[in-house]
């Protein structure tokens, strides 16, 4: 997700389009990206730790982006 | 004669012009493939424009892990001149060799048109042949050209004169403080969003960009002259 302090022109464009479609309740839109990783890990916490390392190294740029992680166990 | 390495990534598309611009300035320029691990004795490294790795994930995010980047980083840390043009600038930011980052243009459109920049800092290996305040017409061709840096970094860049070029007349992409190019603290690593290599002869529409390459060649010649003087009448091959 683009850092909150930075202008997000994509989010602004989507916000304007939503307003034009009558969704007046929308106060702010920000557009980021969603990366899905299928990984093998002994525990969900271990998977999160690895994913955090991947974000810090490659998946997110700390200068321009913030990230959040969520883990789900495959059935 | 400066030995210039132009790094070629999959998706680079300004590599040939960049090599030609360096050669026209008198340099001995050669390509270095991104999978190589040495710079083959280069004095100067240039990362050209293009769309390395299709700009996947973020512009420059994957290229910065290419095998050659370890040698580029070592060259930069040792004070060697490095220039990143357009995608090369994005790669240098992703690699942490330059501060800040490049994001989607404020108006979300890919821009391919002339832009005007003012030379703010002649004290770099790539701008020494320009006068401070000189206005240049250089083409831009980018979708992700909006330079961003947090407030503290931007203030630091301004305070230490590390903004090398600044857009004038208009700010095409919404860059912080109209920044078109910056350098690192030592001044040897420089990034620029417009394309000086596309304006090196009047037949190309202008030659405002030629002195970027002449600067690096003149600097090298001066250094050699100093080295020769240092050993008196024994010519020293550097």
Description of the molecule:
Chain A is mostly helical and 75 residues long. Chain A has two domains: 1-32, no CATH class; 34-75, no CATH class. Chain A has helices at 9-20, 44-59. Chain B has 238 residues and is of the alpha/beta class. Chain B has a single domain, classed as Rossmann fold (3-Layer(aba) Sandwich). In chain B, 24% of the residues lie in helices and 24% in strands. Chain B is built from five helices and eleven strands. Chain B has helices spanning 15-24, 69-77, 87-94, 151-159, 210-230; strands spanning 3-8, 28-33, 44-47, 82-85, 101-103, 111-119, 135-142, 146-148, 163-168, 179-183, 189-192. In chain B, the strands form two sheets. In chain B, strands 2-1-3-4-11-10-9-6-7 form a nine-stranded mixed β-sheet, with helices on both faces. A two-stranded antiparallel sheet of chain B has the order 5-8. In chain B, a hairpin with a 5-residue loop joins strand 10 (179-183) and strand 11 (189-192). Chain B is globular and about 40 Å long. The chains are: A mainly alpha (75), B alpha/beta (238). The interface between A and B is medium-sized, with 12 and 20 residues.
Class derived from helix and strand content of chain B: alpha/beta
Question: What is the H/E string of chain A?
Answer: HH
Amino- and carboxy-terminal Cα gap of chain A: 28 Å
So what's the oligomer here?
heterodimer
Biggest interface between protein chains, with counts per chain?
Answer: A-B, 12 and 20 residues
CATH fold-level topology of chain B: Rossmann fold
Uncertain regions of chain B: pLDDT < 50 for 5+ in a row? none
Which structural class do you get from the secondary structure elements of chain A?
mainly alpha
End-to-end Cα distance of chain B: 10 Å
Q: Tally the helices of chain A: what do you get?
A: 2
Q: What's the total helix number of chain B?
A: 5
* Inertia-based shape of chain B: globular
Q: What is the mean predicted local confidence, pLDDT of chain A?
A: 94
CATH superfamily of chain B: Class I glutamine amidotransferase (GATase) domain
Total number of strands of chain A: 0
The fraction of residues in strands of chain B falls at 15-25%
Q: Could you tell me the strand content of chain A as a percent range?
A: under 5%
Low-confidence stretches of chain A are none
């Amino acid at each position: 997700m683009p850092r909150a302090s930075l202008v997000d022109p994509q989010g602004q464009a989507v916000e304007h389009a939503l307003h034009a479609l009558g969704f007046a309740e929308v106060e702010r839109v920000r557009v980021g990206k969603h990366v899905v990783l299928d990984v093998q890990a002994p525990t969900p916490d271990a998977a999160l730790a690895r994913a955090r390392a991947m974000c810090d190294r490659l998946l997110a740029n700390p200068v321009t982006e913030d990230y959040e992680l969520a883990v789900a166990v495959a059935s | 004669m400066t030995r210039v390495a132009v790094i070629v990534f999959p998706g680079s598309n300004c590599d040939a012009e960049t090599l030609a611009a360096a050669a026209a300035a008198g340099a001995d320029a050669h390509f270095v493939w991104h999978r190589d691990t040495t710079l083959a004795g280069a004095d100067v490294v240039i990362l050209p424009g293009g769309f390395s790795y299709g700009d996947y994930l973020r512009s420059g995010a994957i290229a910065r892990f290419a095998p050659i980047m370890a040698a580029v980083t070592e060259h930069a840390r040792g004070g060697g001149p490095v220039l990143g043009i357009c995608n090369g600038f994005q790669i240098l930011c992703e690699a942490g060799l330059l501060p800040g980052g490049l994001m989607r243009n404020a108006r979300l459109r890919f821009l391919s048109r002339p832009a005007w920049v003012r030379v703010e800092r002649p004290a770099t290996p790539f701008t020494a042949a320009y006068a401070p305040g000189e206005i240049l017409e250089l083409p831009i061709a980018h979708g992700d050209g909006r330079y961003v840096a947090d407030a503290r970094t931007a203030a630091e860049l301004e305070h230490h004169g590390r903004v090398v070029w600044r857009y004038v007349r208009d700010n095409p992409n919404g860059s912080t403080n109209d920044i078109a190019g910056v350098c690192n603290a030592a001044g040897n690593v420089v990034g620029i969003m417009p394309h000086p290599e596309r304006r090196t002869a009047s037949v190309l529409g202008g030659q405002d960009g030629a002195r970027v390459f002449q600067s690096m060649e003149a600097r090298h010649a001066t250094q050699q002259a100093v080295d020769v003087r240092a050993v008196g009448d024994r010519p020293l091959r550097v």
